[in-house]
Amino acid sequence: MEKPKESNVDRLRNAILDMVHEMSLGFGDKLPTEKEMAERFQVSRPTLREALKLLEQEAVIDVHQGKGRFLAAGALLNIARPITKFESVSQMVSSHGYVAQTQLLGFASVAADSVTAARLSLPEGAPLIRVERLRSSGGQPLVYSVDWLPRALFGTAFETPDWSGSIVAMLAEMGRHPVASTANVRATLLPPDVAELHSLQAFGPALLIEEICYAADGTRVIYAMDYHRGSAFSFSFVRK
Amino acid sequence: MEKPKESNVDRLRNAILDMVHEMSLGFGDKLPTEKEMAERFQVSRPTLREALKLLEQEAVIDVHQGKGRFLAAGALLNIARPITKFESVSQMVSSHGYVAQTQLLGFASVAADSVTAARLSLPEGAPLIRVERLRSSGGQPLVYSVDWLPRALFGTAFETPDWSGSIVAMLAEMGRHPVASTANVRATLLPPDVAELHSLQAFGPALLIEEICYAADGTRVIYAMDYHRGSAFSFSFVRK
């Protein structure tokens, strides 16, 4: 999934994490002062505090009253991306520090099988578009994805879009911006035929995220299976 | 992690999911009426509605005003356990439909290395207890776990506890009940030496959850690495 817009606060949160990486801060290290960070990022203090609050809630930062903000031990776990954040695969890949290229492996018009139809809340046999892509960085394959979209979204123009670009951005332009998803994660290997066809035998264990993406009006616009290379990605979350 | 108590509403939520499995309900199928479910589960209507509301929020159930409750397409994804729920490995294993046996592979008193010390917010070299266990069902290995606990929690009695039982229940009895965690998930293989030593070569890809567990007062009481057999488990979540 791609998501064209990220709120200022989210962007700032990510910039603070980048700063933590750049400064090689470890557990117990003090972050720069509010004043220094507001200047560095050219943002207002209230916006900065909102982003810092997010990181505090994610247990990345500990606040010691009167002393400042310190990197929490949890930061080691939490600097990975929150698994509960809806964002594009491209954003997720780049936030892990990779510069990604997208390779279009194929697209086709297909009839929905029973499972895919149920995922997209469509009748069995409904026309879908199936898009198969590979994200790589420096020649290393990172994410193998298959996306299914209702054919009806595209009118007669489904061969026109540039499928190597952001599907979410494309949907947003069509007024169908995906804003949330329900998802499922497990560990698996790439399907053997896929690994062979695309020379991905060395991909290793994959974190498979299956996802149904919803537009703001609740309609289902994408069903996606994203295989994240296990050695390259991890995701964080809080359990209560 | 073990968690001794589950709220009535959570328990009822899980019982409703079990019922959905038992009745082999699929997408679009109607659930029994509120009256039928209240009788079946011997609970009050407000408690029942609270559990159903949870399932609605998790996109397992669709409510059609005046018509009743129906299994949502998302149910197929969401009947897996929410990854954001803090619960014991035993509870999680049994909610996936397995009857688990716990095998104690080893325990030892060790000095904290830098990473483990940071995870538990202790100085490097602090004394820890390391517990290594395997959950299986019907002879099939399901979860390989290593837990580290601050030695200081146990006074001089650390050899006494029954490490094949619930660590969380044990901590609860000691007034250190873990109530939440920060965690990280990735796909990997078992460490080769572990696989060989414990004859787990056929375990396959694992969903590794690394977790820092917190007692109610915010102290860190467990650092755990749980390798979930990929072919046996999946977890659900919502992205926004």
TrEMBL record, chains A, B:
GO terms for molecular function: DNA binding; DNA-binding transcription factor activity. Transmembrane segments: none annotated. Coiled coil: none annotated. GO terms for biological process: negative regulation of DNA-templated transcription. Gene3D superfamilies: Chorismate lyase-like (3.40.1410.10), Winged helix-like DNA-binding domain superfamily/Winged helix DNA-binding domain (1.10.10.10). SMART domains: HTH_GNTR (SM00345), UTRA (SM00866). InterPro entries: Bact_HTH_transcr_reg, Chorismate_lyase_/UTRA_dom_sf, Tscrpt_reg_HTH_GntR, UTRA, WH-like_DNA-bd_sf, WH_DNA-bd_sf. CDD domains: WHTH_GntR. It comes from the Bacteria. Keywords: DNA-binding, Transcription, Transcription regulation. Pfam families: GntR (PF00392), UTRA (PF07702). Residues 6-74 form the HTH gntR-type domain. This is GntR family transcriptional regulator. It comes from Frigidibacter mobilis.
